[in-house]
Design brief:
The chain has 360 residues and is an alpha/beta fold. 40% of the residues lie in helices and 21% in strands. Strands 2-1-3-12-11-4-5-10-8-9 form a 10-stranded mixed sheet, with helices on both faces. A two-stranded antiparallel ribbon has the order 6-7. Strands 13-14 form a two-stranded parallel ribbon. The protein is globular and about 60 Å long. The longest helix has 19 residues, at 15-33. α1 links the parallel β1 (2-11) and β2 (35-41). It folds into 2 domains: 1-106 and 262-360, Isopropylmalate Dehydrogenase; 130-256, 3-Layer(aba) Sandwich (Isopropylmalate Dehydrogenase). The two termini are 21 Å apart. The protein has 12 helices and 14 strands. The mean pLDDT is 96. The structure holds 3-isopropylmalic acid and magnesium ion. 3-isopropylmalic acid (IPM) is lined by residues 90, 93-94, 248.
Length: 360
């Protein structure tokens, strides 16, 4: 029997509700594959601020560092919106990414055949979409210095620095090429090299790294065009690699191909052999808190990604994904993906249904 220690950071809003379902699913998967999961919880986000006065307590980061993998729910709630920026819940996300050196963020945008009609886009355009967006996660304008707001010559000025070191680009490029190798062998690097110097370096390094992956067909696209192409003809993409800010924007955009933010998981990976973190790409949806109404599928699929990327267990990944699809095929829908003639399902029931598919 294998034992894995999982840090469970449920966070705020509906984070704890979706996490409960993911833990249920992992326990079911554990029984199938003879794995024991030790789940240890710690606070992150607003709830951590309430108790410790900081959104990312040192003890939470320590627990995450010594665990085999981290599952994260979501952070944020309206009641924290007026806090100073350095203690806002979002700061904890940036802090844990940097603290664990999670530089590679994998955000798949997959359209389940059963849900083609939930997309706001035309069915024929989204049916069969399977894109992997690889977003650099610890650099760029998110972390660049100098930054701040100050007064110069009597005028206030705000500034951030869009900056990449060549080694930062190189390591994310390697992750991207390796990911593309395991998929459709097509990689599109998204930048703004027609305007930004930092993008020109990005492109140069990506081209350099591409020499080590001759089988991968590499293309480049400016970010404005990419934003348009993702909506116009998403099936042209297999794997996309881009910087932190462009990836933030494009991954939210791509989530709409599938119809709901409630469906999409993510993996944030660090150096080989180090701890990785798994979280849904959606927020904490505080308006749905306590209503048993939020969709747990994104978090459940994040747990599936953990099995694949942290524990190299593709069979467990496939089993979870297959079980989710079976439940959707049987007509069960949470409210975010509900349509006529389908069976409206709560958060807990959705988790239970997926567990019973796993147990079959
Ligand atoms: C995301 C979010 C975060 C980001 C925010 C909440 C800090 O939008 O994970 O995409 O900008 O990275
Ligand atoms: Mg975002």
């Amino acid at each position: 029997m294998k034992t894995y220690n999982i840090a469970v950071l449920s966070g705020d809003g509906t984070g704890p509700e979706v996490m409960t379902e993911a833990v249920k699913v992992l326990n079911a998967v554990g029984k199938k594959f003879d794995i024991e999961f030790n789940f240890e919880e710690a606070l992150i986000g607003g709830i951590a601020y309430d108790k410790f006065g900081v959104p990312l307590p040192e003890s939470t980061l320590e627990l995450a560092k010594k665990s085999d993998a981290v599952m994260l729910g979501a952070v944020g709630d309206w009641k924290y919106d007026t806090l100073p920026p350095e203690v806002r819940p979002e700061k904890a996300l940036l802090g844990i990414r940097k603290g664990l050196n999670l530089f590679a963020n994998l955000r798949p945008a997959i359209v389940f055949e059963e849900l083609v009609s939930s997309s706001p886009l035309k069915a024929e355009n989204v049916s069969g979409v399977d894109i992997m967006i690889i977003r650099e996660l610890t650099g760029d304008v998110y972390f660049g210095t100098p930054k701040g707001v100050e007064t110069r010559d009597g005028k206030r000025v705000g500034f951030n620095n869009m900056i990449y070191y060549e080694d930062e680009v190189r390591r994310i490029a390697h992750v991207a090429f390796q990911t593309a190798m395991a998929r459709g062998k097509k990689l599109c690097s998204v930048d703004k090299a027609n305007v930004l110097d930092v993008s020109r370096l990005w492109r140069e390094i990506v081209v350099e790294v591409s020499k080590e992956y001759p089988e991968v067909e590499l293309s480049h696209m400016y970010v404005d065009n990419a934003a348009m192409q993702i909506i116009r003809a998403p099936k042209q993409f297999d794997t996309i690699v881009t910087g932190n800010i462009f990836g933030d924007i494009l991954s939210d955009e791509a989530s709409m191909l599938s119809g709901s933010l409630g469906l999409l998981p993510s993996a944030s990976l660090g150096e080989e052999g180090k701890v990785s973190l798994y979280e849904p790409i959606h927020g904490s949806a505080p308006d749905l808190k306590g209503k048993n109404a939020v969709n747990p599928i994104a978090t459940i699929l994040s747990a599936a990604m953990m099995m694949k990327y942290s524990f190299k267990n593709n069979e467990a990944y496939d089993l979870i994904e297959k079980s989710v699809k079976a439940v959707l095929k049987a007509g069960y829908r949470t409210q975010d993906i509900m349509s006529e003639g389908k069976k409206l399902t709560g958060t807990t029931q959705m988790g239970d249904l997926i567990v019973s598919e796993i147990n079959k």
